[in-house]
Task: inverse folding
């Protein structure tokens, strides 16, 4: 167990967790840039091309093939990191989870205040009439899912080239600015503007739990290079 981390958790009252795809790899969902990440696999187009607004509009069929195969992982369950964060919120020592993930596993673990910067695969909407559809609907259709009005259904996830939701940004930034401890985990801190939000933290308990180096390692007060689920399973 990391004693310093355990001590800081005991002393903190407004912890904020900022995470990314690495939080869910131990739940069986591949990340983008890790050792087994999607960016190291071969597709007809690079993932950042497929997951862009332009590609979705031009080749929705191709987009959905990749999306159903790689992003709609079935049966994934929260791991000790998701579960411990939910427990801390209930105990009143964690104010928010800010996530770049779109898998909904923090809510599945019981977290209430979750700022999903990049949306969620659980929500989908018709681009013509706005009607909402759940994830099972997308899973149970083939090709490009269509609304009853005939419009194309789009996942409520932020694709490259799209902007983030204003109220979600505000909530996330406010929580980070007020935090007495910021734990960043499972993120390469490569995707902007999300990665820039951590600069709003002004305290001296910035913990970075990531398997590989990040461009912001210099800013951290404590760096831990172990699997994040394992780290959280050892904390109270
Ligand atoms: P990323 O760029 O793939 O980085 C993940 C980081 O986590 C890497 O630096 C890894 O070394 C590290 N890592 C992997 N597994 C672990 C582990 N068990 N413990 C500690 N560290 C680990 O992912 P980011 O989140 O930084 O990039 C942002 C993108 C990825 C967002 O737009 C997400 O929507 C998108 N994404 C989300 C999911 C998901 O929802 N689960 C999956 C894949 C990609």
Result:
């Amino acid at each position: 167990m990391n004693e310093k981390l355990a001590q800081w958790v005991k002393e903190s009252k407004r912890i904020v967790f900022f995470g990314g795809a690495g939080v869910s790899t131990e739940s069986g969902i591949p990340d983008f840039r890790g050792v087994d990440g999607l960016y190291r696999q071969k597709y007809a187009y690079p993932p950042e091309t497929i997951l862009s607004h332009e590609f979705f509009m031009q080749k929705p069929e191709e987009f959905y093939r990749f999306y159903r195969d790689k992003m709609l992982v079935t049966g994934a369950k929260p791991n000790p990191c998701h579960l411990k964060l939910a427990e801390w919120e209930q105990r009143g020592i964690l104010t928010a989870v800010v996530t770049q993930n779109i898998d909904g596993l923090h809510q599945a673990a019981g977290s209430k205040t979750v700022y999903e910067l990049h949306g969620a695969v659980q929500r989908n909407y018709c681009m013509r009439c706005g009607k909402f559809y759940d994830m099972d609907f997308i899973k149970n259709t083939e090709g490009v899912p269509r609304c009853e009005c005939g419009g194309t259904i789009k996942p409520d996830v932020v694709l490259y080239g799209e902007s983030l939701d204003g109220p979600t940004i505000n909530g996330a930034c406010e929580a980070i600015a007020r935090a007495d401890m910021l734990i960043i985990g499972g993120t390469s801190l490569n995707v902007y503007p999300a990665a820039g939000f951590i600069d709003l933290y002004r305290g001296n308990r910035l913990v970075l739990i990531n398997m590989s180096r990040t461009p912001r390692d210099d800013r951290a007060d404590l760096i831990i290079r172990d699997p994040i689920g394992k780290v959280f399973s050892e904390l109270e």
Notes: The pocket of carba-nicotinamide-adenine-dinucleotide is lined by residues 20-22, 24-26, 29, 31-34, 37, 100-103, 118, 186-188, 190-191, 209-212, 227-228 (CB under 6 Å). The first strand starts at residue 15 and ends at 19.
